[in-house]
Amino acid sequence: MNNSSSLSEKEIKAIQDALKKDKKPTIGLVGVSGVGKTSTINKMFKTHLPVSATIACTKNFETIDLELSMNQGIAKGQPIELTVVDAPGLAEDIKLDSQYLEMYHQHLPNCDVILYVLAARNRAMALDQMYLEKLKSFHQNMVFAINQVDLLDPMEWNEKINLPSDHQLANIQEVIKDRTEKLESVVEKEINLIAYSSKTGYNLQELFSSLLDACPPERKWLFQGLKSFHFTDFIPKETLAHLRQQGLI
Ligand SMILES: Nc1nc2c(ncn2[C@@H]2O[C@H](COP(=O)(O)OP(=O)(O)OP(=O)(O)O)[C@@H](O)[C@H]2O)c(=O)[nH]1
Ligand SMILES: [Mg+2]
Q: Which residue has the higher pLDDT, 207 or 227?
């Protein structure tokens, strides 16, 4: 639901001025290789980053600067900026793991919120538990989500309404319960594990809202302007430039 009208013009101006000086709101995506981190960014922010169905794909931390345009309310047409950081997937190769973990420790302090992504069909949780123990200093900023739920048995996805069948939904709930327990055994906080599909877009808005809610209190106001966005509202920088050139915004 859009609630951009709850921000006054003065508040919007204050946010924009601060954004010019301050680090933009920054969201990082982490997890083992192939869970769909890059696919999630592509679906949520309409980017075209390379993904692979067969081999480990993202090899470095990629920083994506997004410019978004408010399409409703008092701030209509005003730009809002956001940075998304895509991480290389852990567990790709034992020879790379320590290097990747070092990169995680180097880059993740720049993120306000970190999305830790799991894949629904993977029930072997020891690797994730092990990585989470090594990433303890970031737990408080983490949101946990489980992607690829469209692939859970009995794979009866209703594409028309973008929802699982009752049987598939029951399996999703069982998976959520099991993985939540296993995550909570290594992460010292209550976890609200969000099931979604970056392929179909299922539950992506709930995921986006959870990311905004998880930002640290002292940076919360920077995320305020993003609250009026639905994930389908995002306009990538290049498209925005084109629309401006055409005088359409
Ligand atoms: N069915 C289905 N496939 C998905 C989903 N999300 C990602 N995939 C597929 O999973 C594969 C891996 O996706 P990536 O986005 O490259 O995964 P990644 O986590 O970025 O992988 P690395 O860069 O190697 O760490 C691709 O073939 C995607 O199309 C989903 O929600 N459903
Ligand atoms: Mg990737």
A: 207
